[in-house]
Amino acid sequence: MSRIGKEPITIPDKVTVAMDGEIVRVEGPKGMLSRKIPREVGLSIDGASVSVVRLSKDRRVGAFQGLARTLVANMVNGVSNGYEKRLEIVGVGYRGEVEGNVLKLLIGYSSPVEYQIPEGINITIERQVNITVGGIDKELVGKVASEIRGLKKPEPYKGKGIRYAGEVVRRKVGKSAGA
Questions:
Q1: Structure confidence by residue, pLDDT tens digits, 60-77
Q2: What is the spatial distance between Cα 85 and Cα 137, in angstroms, rounded to a whole number?
Q3: Which of 26, 44, 98, 136 lies at a CB distance of 3.0 to 4.6 Å from 75, suitable for a disulfide?
Q4: Any bridge partners for residue 124, and if so which?
Q5: DSSP letters along 40-68, please?
Q6: What is the CATH class of 3-80?
Q7: How far apart are CA 89 and CA 82, in angstroms?
Q8: CATH architecture of 83-164
Q9: Strands 102-106 and 113-116, how do they pair?
């Protein structure tokens, strides 16, 4: 029994939700998203709320109900508020800049690392070391932030690299000149 799946999703003003077969379309002030949801569940749209309905009593369908409810709720929140992740570049001489739809990072390699920014993602850089990844698709924002962090993960000895804002990097003690 899915507790999350039973909760209705409230639809804010200026957001519309429509179901076409297995495709859910959500439109709002920030844009439009569409996604295929499992065929074992359906949507019940009534005025200012949407509920995910099970089409069978199978236990597996309960999991799909919770999944579909979370996906639709993320879509509704994305087109109304948007999502963003913050990253920090740590290291002497490490910095980044955005040129068109390319993110250029100087992160300790002999040449700059270039990252192609996908469509639907907005990247801004403040003070050359604070990266903000924003967009309406929560999954895509998280994926892009993870890929950027993966270009130079924070290393445990000096802590240099790209990390999420607020991420704590566990530090190790380096070699000591023993007697």
A1: 888 889 999 999 999 999
A2: 12
A3: 26
A4: 132
A5: TEEEEEETTEEEEEESS--HHHHHHHHHH
A6: alpha beta
A7: 23
A8: Alpha-Beta Complex (3.90)
A9: antiparallel
